[in-house]
Amino acid sequence: MKISVIGTGYVGLVTGTCLAEVGNDVLCLDVDVNKINLLKQGEIPIYEPDLEDMVRRNVSVGRLRFTLDQAECTDHGLVQFIAVGTPPDEDGSADMQYVTTAARAIGQNMQDYKLIVDKSTVPVGTVDRVRGVIYEELAKRGVEIDFSVASNPEFLKEGAAVDDFMRPDRIVIGADDDKAIELLRTLYTPFNRNHDRLVVMDARSAELTKYAANAMLATRISFMNELALLAEKLGADIEHVRRGIGSDPRIGYHFLYAGCGYGGSCFPKDVKALQRTARENGTGLKILEAVEAVNARQKEVLLDKIRARFGSDLSGKTFALWGLAFKPNTDDMREAPSRMLITGLLAQGAAVSAYDPVAMDETKRLFASEPGLKLANSSMSALEGADALIVVTEWKMFRSPDFSEIRRKLRNAVIFDGRNIYDPDSIRTEGFEYFSIGRP
Ligand SMILES: NC(=O)C1=CN([C@@H]2O[C@H](COP(=O)(O)OP(=O)(O)OC[C@H]3O[C@@H](n4cnc5c(N)ncnc54)[C@H](O)[C@@H]3O)[C@@H](O)[C@H]2O)C=CC1
Ligand SMILES: O=C(O)[C@H]1O[C@H](OP(=O)(O)OP(=O)(O)OC[C@H]2O[C@@H](n3ccc(=O)[nH]c3=O)[C@H](O)[C@@H]2O)[C@H](O)[C@@H](O)[C@@H]1O
């Protein structure tokens, strides 16, 4: 099938590439000249395992192409995926300007039937809004052309994006017309083998499903983080509690890890946007207010522990930081807990020596003018002369380090572990003072 994808961020690029991988003829559009030039050379602007190889493979056989030309993009695809950003507006609502611009451009350029699919995470009612914008543009041109609009929210996780798209838990389709549903059913057939993963519903329910999923996941994390604080006070171990409750299939093991707070481009913005939608509709989402407040406090937990150990004036101290990205396997630093921690440590007069396997360039860009932040060449060199090690992101490479080398390099054998990746007993046997989240 001929597919156009508007926006080549995470979601657009993964959607376009995976659809090309299963044999579709895909054209991806972006307004960012640098991104398109890079992609045309087979390079991807983000770090995402397996994606670059897949992009190159599909570009080389001509199934995946990139363009800056809106008219060419509209003309190409029978299906037009809108996968542009929906960042938070000042009031917490989703900023819809990019979605509206993309829809308007389709209305201005289309010559025959198109199925327009909202892939971006968008507030309930967006399918209707996109339909309205396209009608407006067709009316301005004085033409009548048949088209459908559907919602098809994306549930992929950064760092596992290709696998999530190729082997989805579910594919949600929200549409009110049969033609749209049939086209999407056909398009997703290669991803829907063994058992039916397609969940078809009306557009408004599909749009709400996406926010509900992220809000539920964020709620689980904040619940565990709040419980971790209580566990610390009671002398209980949140890791034991996690295993104890996760074994109940009604609860399950996933997304129950206490840590130094959730970050990323989606949970924070989507939790805010859903609250905003609720307020606009005269109702509240008290649980989500608490989820947000707990997460904001959780991002300060490591700094609190550091100050409790080293005192509130940290001048003259240096801290080694392992992990900067908001989670492993990505270079994304949006809302990353490391950012608040670095800012907090520098504000208390400390110096920071940081290392991340892939997020160094992004850190450099974000903290360009911070003389107190040094970017180390390796995890071990970050430790030289530091007063303590702080683990913020649970990259695999940090899980079983050479502890005797760490002890030799650090000024004090102290570790703050924001992701509970070490075993408290064995690390103390190695001679470390060890502070983690929700564990004695
Ligand atoms: N990042 C993620 O892991 C996931 C994101 N989402 C949702 O998908 C949407 C996109 O997210 P990301 O890919 O992270 O966004 P992003 O911000 O990384 O990329 C968006 C891209 O759209 C381009 N763009 C903006 N306006 C355009 C236009 N009129 N025509 C063509 N290109 C245009 C931008 O230049 C940019 O390259 C958001 O709504 C997000 O909430 C959903 C699931 C996962
Ligand atoms: O809408 C989106 O953009 C996506 O948002 C999340 O994906 P992502 O933000 O890539 O990352 P997650 O793996 O969900 O992690 C988010 C944050 O939660 C934290 N987390 C996760 C799990 C956990 O148990 N504890 C915990 O603190 C992570 O460290 C990270 O900071 C969802 O998991 C995806 O399903 C969704 O499609």
Automatic annotation (TrEMBL):
<feature type="binding site">
    <location>
        <position position="269"/>
    </location>
    <ligand>
        <name>NAD(+)</name>
    </ligand>
</feature>
<dbReference type="InterPro" id="IPR014026">
    <property type="entry name" value="UDP-Glc/GDP-Man_DH_dimer"/>
</dbReference>
<dbReference type="InterPro" id="IPR017476">
    <property type="entry name" value="UDP-Glc/GDP-Man"/>
</dbReference>
<dbReference type="InterPro" id="IPR008927">
    <property type="entry name" value="6-PGluconate_DH-like_C_sf"/>
</dbReference>
<keyword id="KW-0520">NAD</keyword>
<dbReference type="InterPro" id="IPR036220">
    <property type="entry name" value="UDP-Glc/GDP-Man_DH_C_sf"/>
</dbReference>
<feature type="binding site">
    <location>
        <position position="210"/>
    </location>
    <ligand>
        <name>substrate</name>
    </ligand>
</feature>
<dbReference type="Pfam" id="PF00984">
    <property type="entry name" value="UDPG_MGDP_dh"/>
</dbReference>
<feature type="binding site">
    <location>
        <position position="158"/>
    </location>
    <ligand>
        <name>NAD(+)</name>
    </ligand>
</feature>
<dbReference type="GO" id="GO:0051287">
    <property type="term" value="F:NAD binding"/>
</dbReference>
<dbReference type="InterPro" id="IPR028357">
    <property type="entry name" value="UDPglc_DH_bac"/>
</dbReference>
<feature type="binding site">
    <location>
        <position position="334"/>
    </location>
    <ligand>
        <name>NAD(+)</name>
    </ligand>
</feature>
<dbReference type="GO" id="GO:0003979">
    <property type="term" value="F:UDP-glucose 6-dehydrogenase activity"/>
</dbReference>
<feature type="binding site">
    <location>
        <position position="121"/>
    </location>
    <ligand>
        <name>NAD(+)</name>
    </ligand>
</feature>
<comment type="similarity">
    <text>Belongs to the UDP-glucose/GDP-mannose dehydrogenase family.</text>
</comment>
<keyword id="KW-0560">Oxidoreductase</keyword>
<dbReference type="InterPro" id="IPR036291">
    <property type="entry name" value="NAD(P)-bd_dom_sf"/>
</dbReference>
<comment type="pathway">
    <text>Nucleotide-sugar biosynthesis; UDP-alpha-D-glucuronate biosynthesis; UDP-alpha-D-glucuronate from UDP-alpha-D-glucose: step 1/1.</text>
</comment>
<dbReference type="InterPro" id="IPR001732">
    <property type="entry name" value="UDP-Glc/GDP-Man_DH_N"/>
</dbReference>
<feature type="binding site">
    <location>
        <position position="35"/>
    </location>
    <ligand>
        <name>NAD(+)</name>
    </ligand>
</feature>
<dbReference type="GO" id="GO:0006065">
    <property type="term" value="P:UDP-glucuronate biosynthetic process"/>
</dbReference>
<feature type="domain" description="UDP-glucose/GDP-mannose dehydrogenase C-terminal">
    <location>
        <begin position="320"/>
        <end position="424"/>
    </location>
</feature>
<feature type="binding site">
    <location>
        <position position="86"/>
    </location>
    <ligand>
        <name>NAD(+)</name>
    </ligand>
</feature>
<dbReference type="Pfam" id="PF03721">
    <property type="entry name" value="UDPG_MGDP_dh_N"/>
</dbReference>
<dbReference type="InterPro" id="IPR014027">
    <property type="entry name" value="UDP-Glc/GDP-Man_DH_C"/>
</dbReference>
<feature type="binding site">
    <location>
        <position position="263"/>
    </location>
    <ligand>
        <name>substrate</name>
    </ligand>
</feature>
<feature type="binding site">
    <location>
        <begin position="255"/>
        <end position="259"/>
    </location>
    <ligand>
        <name>substrate</name>
    </ligand>
</feature>
<feature type="binding site">
    <location>
        <position position="327"/>
    </location>
    <ligand>
        <name>substrate</name>
    </ligand>
</feature>
<dbReference type="GO" id="GO:0000271">
    <property type="term" value="P:polysaccharide biosynthetic process"/>
</dbReference>
<protein>
    <recommendedName>
        <fullName>UDP-glucose 6-dehydrogenase</fullName>
        <ecNumber>1.1.1.22</ecNumber>
    </recommendedName>
</protein>
<feature type="binding site">
    <location>
        <position position="30"/>
    </location>
    <ligand>
        <name>NAD(+)</name>
    </ligand>
</feature>
<feature type="active site" description="Nucleophile">
    <location>
        <position position="266"/>
    </location>
</feature>
<dbReference type="Pfam" id="PF03720">
    <property type="entry name" value="UDPG_MGDP_dh_C"/>
</dbReference>
<feature type="binding site">
    <location>
        <begin position="155"/>
        <end position="158"/>
    </location>
    <ligand>
        <name>substrate</name>
    </ligand>
</feature>
